[in-house]
Amino acid sequence: MSQARRSCMVRVPATTANLGPGFDCLGLALDLWNEARFATGGEEIVVRVTGEGADTLPWDAENLVAQAALRVYAEAGAAAPAGLAIDCDVRVPLASGLGSSSSAVVAGLLGANELLGRPFHRDQLLEWAADLEGHPDNVAAALIGGLTIVVRKDDRLLTKKILVPEVHVALAVPELPFSTRTARAGLPTEVPMTDAVFNLGRMPLVVEALRTGDFELLGQVMDDRLHQANRLKLIPGGRAAWVAAQTAGAAAVAISGSGPSLVAFVSLASDANAVARAMADAFAAEGVAARPLGLAASAAGATVVGLGQDHCDGGARR
Hints:
Blueprint: E1 7-17, E2 26-40, E3 45-51, H1 64-76, E4 84-90, H2 100-115, H3 122-133, H4 137-144, E5 147-153, E6 156-162, E7 168-174, H5 180-185, H6 193-212, H7 215-221, H8 228-232, H9 238-247, E8 252-255, E9 262-266, H10 269-285, E10 290-296, E11 303-306, E12 311-313
Parallel strand pairs: 3-4
Antiparallel strand pairs: 1-2, 1-11, 2-4, 2-5, 5-6, 7-9, 7-10, 8-9, 11-12
């Protein structure tokens, strides 16, 4: 496979996952994008970061974007490039429950796949992304876009993209030290049958409510008994912010991913910023600074632009 000098740009959306009862199965792409520009050449791997994490993320081969890129070279049986420059413009808040690490993984995989001439299908990239991330919901939504359902069938992942009408969300992103690993470690390894059935019955209704824009139904079914109660205990001010979102008119509220961000669904775009501010104010009243964000869902997933090439959704051949 040729390693001639090439360059490309990858755009990857933020994501919110779980969506109440859809633990590790549901994800939704959001209209907030990280960008990574890749170019071969030079004598070493260099990662330059602007925006979120510019002072904390690695600027070398230890960066997650670079690690994912090197995974593709290894899987292709190709020598890693002696020099690789990756310029990352990071807009998704880190360690926030908005898929920042998934965005990095997907960017690295797609960028390297493009530099190598796109030898790998999107489904294969998804498998590696889930392996690197540890769970598939955020990476599937980031790669595919829209509302994504993902489950494992034997040795492969099955995905289904659901196109949803205009969906707007309010987010409060608290400034709290938080890790997905910690949040997952606090979850039970076994759950009562009644709790499993509770979630199973509600998950398809969440999908249907988002697919049809039925926010009244969404407010009745975005409940969970598997993970949110345990995680909410780890988020100072989280309960107050949850109640504030409901009081401000949110149709439904959930923990975004493993937290600490909260995501609230609103029926009108004009309500998103107001609900986000209400949640941020509630966090502040509990002594926790939080950033309010009003975002729309994104029907598009990750896109790749190769030098002199057209846009290609997913950046891989079918």
